[in-house]
Structure to design on (228 residues):
């Protein structure tokens, strides 16, 4: 596909469950970013990769959050032992290189009950 | 600390009129990009316009233009001839101080265009 894709689009989890969110960036895009967007707010930076290297994970809210991009393409954001405060839309974006415009996926809406 | 400020939570404009959304940011870098993104209701974020900080000329994309004041760290978005399809959340984004790799987003301005 031509754009950034994310799956699943919607995820409902019971508190305490682990979840994995997937992001397929635009082919050839070196940089990949994860954001968390609460209702009515702007995206909050979580982490980003340049190829397979995770260059900054300062935005991850706790050690329950883990992201990887092992082959420098697809990325997975994993949340362990989900809590209600993790409920949000998780956005993925990719760019051709660091500093360029970011292209966003449709997001995954996570609801933790 | 919030480094991108959008002081207008909501704006409204009549179709065909002009509206300006404000944004201020805080970065210590000399060369960087600034962005305005649009997020329609329940739809994904798309880029509206970008400005390269080393260029003095304001960026323009059809009905969208910016007023970039580098010294004041101000980056407002002007929408001319507003259309109903412009109704959306608008987010300004800039790199944070000391880092041009990532973007910090403002809290957004909800724009309503009415007939």
């Amino acid at each position: 596909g031509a754009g950034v894709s994310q799956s699943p689009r919607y995820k409902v989890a019971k508190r305490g469950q682990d979840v994995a969110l997937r992001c397929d960036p635009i082919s050839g895009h070196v940089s990949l970013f994860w954001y968390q967007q609460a209702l009515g707010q702007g995206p909050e930076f979580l982490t980003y990769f340049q190829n397979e290297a995770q260059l900054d994970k300062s935005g991850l809210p706790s050690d329950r959050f883990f992201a990887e991009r092992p082959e420098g393409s697809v990325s997975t954001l994993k949340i362990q032992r989900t809590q209600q405060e993790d409920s949000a839309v998780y956005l993925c974006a990719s760019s051709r290189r660091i500093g360029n415009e970011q292209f966003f996926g449709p997001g995954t809406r996570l609801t933790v009950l | 600390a919030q480094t991108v400020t959008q002081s207008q939570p909501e704006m409204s404009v009549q179709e065909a009129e002009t509206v300006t959304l404000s944004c201020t940011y805080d970065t210590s870098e000399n060369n960087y990009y600034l962005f305005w993104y649009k997020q329609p209701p329940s739809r994904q974020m798309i880029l509206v316009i970008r400005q390269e900080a080393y260029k003095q000329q304001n960026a323009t994309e059809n009905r969208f233009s910016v007023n970039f004041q580098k010294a004041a760290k101000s980056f407002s978005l002007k929408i001319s001839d507003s259309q109903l399809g412009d109704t959306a959340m608008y987010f300004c984004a800039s790199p944070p101080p000391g880092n041009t790799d990532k973007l910090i987003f403002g809290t957004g301005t909800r724009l309503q265009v009415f007939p």
Q: What stands out?
A: The interface with chain B takes residues 31, 33, 35, 40-45, 48, 55-56, 91, 93, 98-107 of chain A (CB under 8 Å).
